[in-house]
Amino acid sequence: MKLKDSVIILLITAAISVVGNYVGYKVNMIEAIPGVLILVLIAVLGIVLAKIIPLKIPSVAYIVTLSTLLTVPGIPGAATISNLVSKVNFLALATPILGYAGIYTGKNLDSLKKTGWRIVILAIFVMIGTYLGSAIIADILLRALGQI
Questions:
Q1: pTM (2 decimals)?
Q2: At 74, phi and psi to the nearest 5?
Q3: Does residue 32 contact residue 18 with C-beta atoms inside 8 Å?
């Protein structure tokens, strides 16, 4: 996908997220826009890094790494970035993404039917593994921090 197309999709997603953030969580749109734009900028930078760095690493890895580095306490501007992005509710971001996933799945329903029942079993194991892995990591970190 061309960078221009990615930016357009990210901006559409950002607009839907700002509206969803207002409708669902009553966050003023003007307050949410800077945080959403920061998220879009980080995503664009991650996509660019994935294109220019010759390693076969998905852009999401660059996006996660970049966003983590930009919000590490002590990094100049980290508190400001965290404060602005905190005005954007996660579920407001997830709504358009889940909508895109639904459209994509519907578009490729014939391919999905050909995979058969095995894909359901695989999906169940992936969800259980993800949940258990997240729970174990959270438990370890919360114990290490003395929260539980």
A1: 0.74
A2: 100, -20
A3: yes
